[in-house]
Structure to design on (289 residues):
């Protein structure tokens, strides 16, 4: 309830701000964790995640992301969105592990509902989505990129991308898996999901997790030129085609959302899974020291 009220407030405040800035010509709105700029080619917004240090998708970040998308969807002048990160070297570290560790079942259920919500909005968006992957992109970070229509990645071998859930002792949900299969094919997905592979850029390109690699300083200009090409296609035919390609995958979650929340909640609440997450978080800490 409290979150729903916060969401309404944010949406309202955001739309007032958005309107005022549009009049000034600035065309920019921001929540704390998501910045949206609509300068550049007509009809294109750049959405930047800014939840330092690693753009983990906390409940607040998910909510702000979903609200920003909703606002862009409602703005009929926007046809395309470039999704990128403001955190140096990190696109997104994926779902926030602290939302899935040491909390209660009601929290897990609320969190998962919001993860589903963002995925459904992003995956089924009528807008053209291009990701400018300017850093590491594990698990939920990869999920965000996979929702896009085209993925441009910085060719920096330090950055990796993939669904690495099995390395954490957890399992990618069926809809993450479905989207992976749709993108890289059954055999590659089967192998990568079991091994929790994090692909460096050259391998990500080879297997089809990303569509194009460019030097790091060219990621944004390339994303813009890709967007220009997609903008040249009439919206109605592109949107109907996208819907035809993606609807079955989205419907598969829509028809069992509640069961999926229950599954997640009972899975993540297990002592053995909490122990695995604890160990993984410890490993992240030790890496530093
Ligand atoms: C039957 C099945 C039914 C249902 C399904 C059930 C379960 C499936 C559920 C969910 C799917 C999960 C999806 C996910 O996205 S899980 C998250 C996966 N993410 C990762 O594995 C990334 C982990 N992070 C890293 O590898 C590195 O941090 C990274 C390469 C991103 C950046 O490295 P860097 O050296 O720059 O920073 P660090 O020092 O490592 O991190 C800084 C700081 O941030 C914390 N951190 C990192 N990642 C996360 C995260 N995902 N969530 C929360 N916090 C994170 C890290 O611990 C450091 O914290 P601190 O020590 O306090 O500074």
């Amino acid at each position: 309830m409290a979150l729903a009220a916060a969401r309404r407030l944010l949406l309202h405040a955001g739309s007032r701000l958005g309107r005022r800035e549009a009049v000034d010509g600035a065309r920019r709105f921001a929540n704390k964790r998501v910045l949206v700029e609509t300068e550049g080619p007509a009809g294109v917004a750049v959405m930047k995640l800014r939840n330092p240090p690693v753009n983990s998708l906390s409940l607040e970040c998910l909510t702000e992301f979903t609200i920003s998308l909703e606002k862009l969807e409602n703005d009929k002048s926007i046809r395309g969105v470039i999704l990128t990160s403001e955190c140096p070297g990190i696109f997104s570290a994926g779902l926030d592990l602290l939302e899935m560790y040491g909390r209660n079942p009601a929290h897990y259920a609320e969190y998962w509902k919001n993860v589903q919500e963002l995925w459904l909005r992003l995956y089924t968006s009528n807008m053209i989505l291009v990701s400018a992957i300017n850093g590491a992109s594990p698990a939920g970070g990869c999920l965000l990129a996979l929702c896009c229509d085209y993925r441009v990645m910085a060719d920096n071998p330090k950055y990796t991308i993939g669904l690495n859930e099995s390395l954490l002792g957890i399992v990618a949900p069926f809809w993450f898996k479905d989207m992976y299969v749709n993108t890289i094919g059954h055999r590659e997905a089967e192998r990568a999901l079991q091994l929790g592979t994090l692909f460096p850029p050259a391998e990500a390109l080879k297997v089809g997790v990303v569509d194009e690699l460019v030097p790091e300083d060219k990621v944004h200009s390339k994303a813009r030129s890709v967007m220009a090409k997609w903008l040249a296609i009439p919206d109605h035919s592109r949107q109907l085609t996208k819907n035809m390609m993606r609807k079955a995958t989205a419907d598969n979650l829509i028809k069992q959302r509640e069961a999926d929340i229950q599954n997640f909640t009972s899975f993540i609440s297990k002592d053995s899974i909490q122990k695995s997450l604890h160990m993984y978080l410890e490993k992240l800490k030790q890496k530093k020291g």
Notes: Residues 8-26 have pLDDT under 50 and may be disordered. Strands lie at 28-30, 34-37, 44-49, 80-85, 89-90, 128-133, 135-138, 150-154, 161-162, 212-214. The longest strand covers residues 44-49. Residues 26 and 39 are 8 Å apart (CA to CA).
